[in-house]
Write a structure and sequence with these properties.
3-stranded parallel beta sheet; 73 residues; alpha/beta
């Protein structure tokens, strides 16, 4: 039998200009019955409000971490 107390899951979500779906996607993950998880958001240099929406969601749930990639050419 799986011991849910000792299991931990990391979920990585890559985002690029996803302002229309990002909040719903984040909430779908965070609302799972299995709560011993972390959600790592990789913001791939979005030019819309994706990062702002993800940051607002992270203020409501400590299980989120946001990483923003910086492009260099």
């Amino acid at each position: 039998m799986l011991d849910k107390k000792n299991n931990f899951v990391s979920i990585i979500m890559s985002l690029f200009n996803a302002e229309s779906t990002v909040e719903r996607s984040i909430q779908s993950i965070l609302n799972q019955s299995f709560s011993n998880l972390e959600l790592i958001i990789i913001n791939d240099n979005s030019s819309d409000s994706t990062l702002n929406i993800a940051e607002k969601c992270s203020l409501k749930d400590h299980r989120m971490k946001i990483i923003t990639l910086m492009l260099s050419y």
